[in-house]
Fold this protein.
Amino acid sequence: MVSKTIFQKIIEKEIPSEFIYEDDLCIVINDINPQAPLHLLIIPKKPLPKLSDAEEKDLNLLGHLMLIAGNMSRKFNVEDAFNIVINNGEKAGQTVFHLHIHFLAGNKKLNLPK
Ligand code: AMP
Protein backbone atom coordinates (compact mmCIF):
# COMPACT_ATOMS: atom_id res chain seq x y z
CA MET A 1 0.00 0.00 0.00
CA VAL A 2 1.27 3.47 -0.90
CA SER A 3 1.71 5.56 2.25
CA LYS A 4 -0.31 8.75 2.66
CA THR A 5 1.30 12.05 1.79
CA ILE A 6 1.54 14.82 4.36
CA PHE A 7 -1.25 16.66 2.53
CA GLN A 8 -3.54 13.62 2.68
CA LYS A 9 -2.92 13.46 6.43
CA ILE A 10 -3.73 17.18 6.74
CA ILE A 11 -6.93 16.77 4.69
CA GLU A 12 -7.99 13.84 6.89
CA LYS A 13 -7.08 15.88 10.01
CA GLU A 14 -4.54 13.29 11.16
CA ILE A 15 -2.08 16.19 11.30
CA PRO A 16 -3.38 19.50 12.66
CA SER A 17 -3.25 22.44 10.29
CA GLU A 18 -5.25 25.64 10.07
CA PHE A 19 -7.56 25.56 7.07
CA ILE A 20 -7.82 29.03 5.56
CA TYR A 21 -10.57 27.69 3.33
CA GLU A 22 -12.30 24.34 2.78
CA ASP A 23 -15.00 23.06 0.49
CA ASP A 24 -16.01 19.68 -0.93
CA LEU A 25 -13.15 19.69 -3.44
CA CYS A 26 -10.17 21.39 -1.83
CA ILE A 27 -8.48 22.98 1.15
CA VAL A 28 -6.23 26.04 1.41
CA ILE A 29 -3.45 26.22 4.00
CA ASN A 30 -0.38 28.36 4.65
CA ASP A 31 2.88 26.90 3.38
CA ILE A 32 5.03 25.88 6.34
CA ASN A 33 8.13 27.34 4.64
CA PRO A 34 6.85 30.49 2.94
CA GLN A 35 8.72 31.80 -0.10
CA ALA A 36 6.73 35.05 -0.18
CA PRO A 37 4.93 37.21 2.43
CA LEU A 38 1.74 35.34 1.49
CA HIS A 39 2.31 31.73 0.43
CA LEU A 40 -0.78 29.57 0.30
CA LEU A 41 -1.20 26.02 -0.88
CA ILE A 42 -4.41 25.15 -2.69
CA ILE A 43 -4.79 21.39 -2.38
CA PRO A 44 -7.48 19.21 -3.96
CA LYS A 45 -8.98 16.59 -1.68
CA LYS A 46 -8.61 14.07 -4.48
CA PRO A 47 -5.10 12.64 -4.16
CA LEU A 48 -3.81 13.20 -7.69
CA PRO A 49 -0.03 12.79 -7.36
CA LYS A 50 0.78 15.45 -9.94
CA LEU A 51 -0.77 17.67 -12.58
CA SER A 52 0.32 15.37 -15.40
CA ASP A 53 -1.80 12.60 -13.84
CA ALA A 54 -4.99 14.65 -14.30
CA GLU A 55 -7.52 13.33 -16.81
CA GLU A 56 -10.55 14.66 -18.66
CA LYS A 57 -12.72 13.74 -15.68
CA ASP A 58 -10.66 16.14 -13.53
CA LEU A 59 -11.56 19.15 -15.67
CA ASN A 60 -14.05 20.55 -13.18
CA LEU A 61 -11.65 20.04 -10.27
CA LEU A 62 -8.77 21.83 -12.04
CA GLY A 63 -11.03 24.73 -12.97
CA HIS A 64 -12.29 24.89 -9.41
CA LEU A 65 -8.76 25.20 -8.04
CA MET A 66 -8.14 28.17 -10.36
CA LEU A 67 -11.33 29.86 -9.21
CA ILE A 68 -10.28 29.37 -5.59
CA ALA A 69 -6.95 31.03 -6.44
CA GLY A 70 -8.91 34.03 -7.69
CA ASN A 71 -11.08 34.00 -4.57
CA MET A 72 -7.97 33.92 -2.36
CA SER A 73 -6.53 36.88 -4.23
CA ARG A 74 -9.60 38.92 -3.35
CA LYS A 75 -9.74 37.60 0.21
CA PHE A 76 -6.18 38.83 0.80
CA ASN A 77 -6.49 41.96 -1.37
CA VAL A 78 -3.73 40.92 -3.75
CA GLU A 79 -5.86 40.51 -6.87
CA ASP A 80 -3.55 42.87 -8.79
CA ALA A 81 -0.36 40.89 -8.17
CA PHE A 82 0.10 37.23 -7.39
CA ASN A 83 1.77 34.19 -8.88
CA ILE A 84 0.64 30.62 -9.00
CA VAL A 85 3.12 27.78 -9.43
CA ILE A 86 2.68 24.05 -9.84
CA ASN A 87 5.81 21.96 -9.55
CA ASN A 88 5.31 18.79 -11.58
CA GLY A 89 7.79 15.98 -10.94
CA GLU A 90 10.85 15.59 -8.77
CA LYS A 91 13.16 17.18 -11.34
CA ALA A 92 10.90 20.26 -11.31
CA GLY A 93 11.17 20.55 -7.53
CA GLN A 94 8.03 18.69 -6.49
CA THR A 95 8.51 17.22 -3.04
CA VAL A 96 4.96 16.29 -2.02
CA PHE A 97 3.27 13.98 -4.49
CA HIS A 98 -0.26 15.23 -4.01
CA LEU A 99 -1.16 17.93 -6.51
CA HIS A 100 -1.07 21.44 -5.07
CA ILE A 101 -0.97 25.00 -6.32
CA HIS A 102 1.44 27.43 -4.74
CA PHE A 103 -0.17 30.87 -4.43
CA LEU A 104 2.46 33.54 -3.83
CA ALA A 105 1.95 37.24 -3.26
CA GLY A 106 3.64 40.20 -1.67
CA ASN A 107 6.92 40.04 -3.55
CA LYS A 108 7.67 42.23 -6.53
CA LYS A 109 9.92 39.51 -7.87
CA LEU A 110 8.72 35.90 -7.85
CA ASN A 111 10.78 33.70 -5.59
CA LEU A 112 10.08 30.20 -6.85
CA PRO A 113 9.74 27.44 -4.26
CA LYS A 114 12.81 25.18 -4.16
P1 AMP B 1 6.44 21.13 -3.70
O1 AMP B 1 7.92 21.23 -3.49
O2 AMP B 1 5.94 21.88 -4.91
O3 AMP B 1 5.98 19.68 -3.68
O4 AMP B 1 5.78 21.86 -2.50
C1 AMP B 1 5.56 21.27 -1.26
C2 AMP B 1 5.34 22.38 -0.30
O5 AMP B 1 4.71 21.86 0.85
C3 AMP B 1 6.61 23.08 0.16
O6 AMP B 1 6.54 24.47 -0.18
C4 AMP B 1 6.61 22.86 1.67
O7 AMP B 1 7.10 23.98 2.38
C5 AMP B 1 5.15 22.60 1.95
N1 AMP B 1 4.85 21.80 3.14
C6 AMP B 1 5.41 20.62 3.50
N2 AMP B 1 4.86 20.17 4.65
C7 AMP B 1 3.91 21.08 5.00
C8 AMP B 1 2.99 21.19 6.09
N3 AMP B 1 2.93 20.26 7.07
N4 AMP B 1 2.18 22.26 6.14
C9 AMP B 1 2.23 23.21 5.17
N5 AMP B 1 3.07 23.16 4.12
C10 AMP B 1 3.91 22.12 4.04
User: Anything to note?
Assistant: The longest helix spans residues 59-75. Strands lie at 21-22, 26-30, 38-44, 83-85, 101-105. The chain has a mean pLDDT of 94. The pocket of adenosine monophosphate is lined by residues 6, 17, 29, 31-33, 41, 87, 93-96, 113 (CB under 6 Å).
